[in-house]
Write a structure and sequence with these properties.
162 residues; alpha+beta; Heat Shock Protein 90; elongated
């Protein structure tokens, strides 16, 4: 399997459009359908907004977004830079989620991504989207259509013979 690895940086909320364009280019390259593209886009932008919102200075928040195609599927890792995580702030992101400030946003991310990994210190979120089953589902759909077609065809032929 050929390795596909890409990386961009986003500085604050005003540059989230870079992440959106990045995801669109990747999904176009890998022929991801529109429905799944929407899931990837929404989950990734919500994860970026979560990391930006927990920073003290939202305009200075810098995110590094890396993409890698793995055996599992498409993996996007969003890492927050520019914040010194002291011992008392290590679980800041988890604490905020528990206080329900970010509960809705993290729920959206977890519902749309197949795997979500939040780092221990809360400085990064990794999202994995499985794409291996898409072709399998398409194949099943085609098989079912063919079965319906042949059932109709044989029933028409049987009716004519009677």
């Amino acid at each position: 399997m050929k390795r596909d690895y890409r990386e961009i940086s986003v500085n604050g909320r005003k540059e989230v459009y870079k992440l959106e364009r990045f995801i669109e280019e990747i999904c176009d390259f890998h022929n991801i359908n529109n429905e799944y593209f929407g899931n990837i886009l929404l989950a990734s932008t919500e994860a970026a907004n979560i990391l930006i919102s927990v920073s003290e200075k939202e305009t200075a928040a810098k995110l590094i977004i890396t993409f890698e195609k793995t055996i599992k599927g498409l993996t996007f890792k969003l890492k927050f830079l520019g914040r010194d995580f002291s011992a008392e702030q290590e679980h800041f992101l988890e604490h905020e989620i528990r206080k329900h400030k970010l509960a809705k946003e993290i729920y959206i991310v977890k519902a749309l991504a197949d795997e979500v990994t939040i780092s221990v210190k809360g400085e990064s979120i990794a999202l994995t989207f499985y794409i291996s089953s898409m072709n399998y589902e398409k194949s099943l759909s085609r098989i079912n259509k063919l079965k319906k077609y042949w059932i109709k065809k044989t029933s028409i032929v049987n009716n004519r013979n009677e």
